[in-house]
Structure formats: structure tokens, C-alpha cells
Amino acid sequence: MSFPLISGLMSSDLAIDLGTANTLVYAKGRGVVVSEPSIVAINKITNNVEAVGKDAKDMLGRTPGNIVAIRPMRDGVIANFEVTEKMLQHFIRKAHNGRTWVSPRVVIGIPSEITQVERRAVEDSAYRAKASEVYLVEEAVAAAIGAGLPITEPYGNIVVDIGGGTTDIAVISLGGIVYSRAVRTAGDAMDNAVADFIKRKYNLLVGERTAEEIKIKMGSAFPFAESLSMEVRGRNLIEGIPRTVTITDEEVRHALDPTVTSIVDAVRVALERTPPELSSDIIDRGIVLTGGGALLKNLDKRLSAETGLPVSIAEEPLTSVVLGAGKMLSDFALLKRVKWENTLQY
Question: Which of the residues 8, 21, 167, 319 has the least number of beta carbons within 10 Å of its own beta carbon?
């Protein structure tokens, strides 16, 4: 594989944030061209792909018996190799406006603590989806670059990337990772916590789309100035019929608290393990939040209260990882510096 080639002006080059909840694709020279849920609808009889992304998400909980909507990514890693490959093929083809003959060079963001086998699975899926070269970079590093942090300078930077399946935390200086940790607690865990709470308290079964909607509208890590409430529809587990209940923001916050606390604790551990010289930089620069989970209301306030540090949210938290990976398509020196060195060593 020829590294210098990746710096050429190749319009087919792609950066991919292969997320548990959403997959984003950045095309060199065009920006983010795909941003869709990581879901594939498969016909169980013919094994054909019926829908991918947004169309497949619309089918969640509503498919007939012969069609199943699958999330091929779990906790930031591939849970279903074959379906992930089909999903990648679809998104790569969509990024190239339907052209099937293109073999792009691809940079993919991965969680920091996945195993060598899991890394190999990501690479193999990309190659089988017709990528010509694959480079893996840690999501937290890509997120830091996408958020505009000066990671190549001799200063400490800490970024917390809260995705769908994992929360990646990294302390970065001089282009390298001083400390990193990935906890498999993030946006999906929040959705599950909301659904479980409603099931326990109200004997009401709600789908993952409803749970996510509740989290977005009512979820918070710190109390609101004014209380909120919303009606939730689901199936009563005792009577077996549809039912509507009203829940409050306090209940949702209570449901989310264990997940939020787990993320806060992981950040505290990262700060405790940061060298003193870099700690002084972090006191000045603070913590930067990226990823969809960073949009949980008042999470920045909760983290700031728990750590005593300033906390800010990246300008574009949802796209920080893919934008950071995209910058590497045009910066070979940076890619060489931050890519997984053992990517090609099996």
C-alpha cells in the first residue's frame, strides 16, 4: 500500500464514521455526503436488502414477518459482519452517486479499546465493500481534529466523544494519545434506560424510536429551570392493549442518571491518570464534548460541576469524527502520525 497516494486529489477518497447509531461518510472535496442510521432491512426469505439507513429506520417495529430491521453495529463494533458489508457497500455507492466501479481509499474511525479481531473485522468489511486501501484511526483523535483542537502542539487536550455504542475519552498531546479509554455506555444505553424505566414503572412497552424521542425531548443530566412533561404511547404489558401515560423530565433524568454517572466516572478516571504537566493545560483548555450524546441537555453543566473544569460542546458534535477523519484524507503526515500502527500486522 502506498501512503503518498492518499494525498493525491482523488475524488473517490472517503472518510467514514461507522457508528452504532449512525454512519456518516465524508467525500474528499465535497464534505459530508451521507448521514444515515446504521440500520439495514433484510428479507429473511430471499436474503435481499430491502432498505438501508433512513428508510430502514422507518421500518423499525413495523416490518412484516419476512422482513427484519437489523443494527449490524453494537457497542461500536461489528456484530453482524455480512450485514455491515452490505451497509458499507450501499453508503459507499451512495457517496459516489451510484457508481459501482469506484474503489476508494478509506479512513475509518474506530473506538479506542476494540480488540485486534474487531479491528480486522472493520477492515475486512471495508475491503469487501470494494475499498482499495483502509486506514483506521481512533474516534477520539478524529473527533478532536474535527473539533479544531490543536492536537499536534505540546499541550494537553481532552476530548469526550459520546456516540451510540461507546464513549471514547482521550488525552492528546503532540499528535499522540497520552491516555485513552472507551466505555461501552453511550446513547443507546440511554435509550434502553428510558425504555426500561417506563416498562418497570408503568408496565408500558415502548419501542426504541419512542425511547430515543423521549431522550431527545426530555432527557437531561441536570434539572431544568421549569419542569416538562409529555405523553408517551405504548403497549400495556398487563392488558396487552395500547395505552398512553404522561411522564416528566424528572423521571427521565432519574432513568438516565446511571448512564450519565458512568460517563462522568470514566472522565474522572481519565483526569486522574493525566500527567501533571498536561493537567495544567486541561485546567485552562477544559473538556471538549463531541458525538450525538454531547447534545444531552445540561451534560456539560453536570460534567463541569463534577470535575470543576470548563466544559464546551464542539461546534458540530454530530460530525466531528467524520470531519476529523476527512481532514486526514488531505494531510498524509497527520494520518501517518495518528493511524493505528498495527492495522496491517495480522
Answer: 8
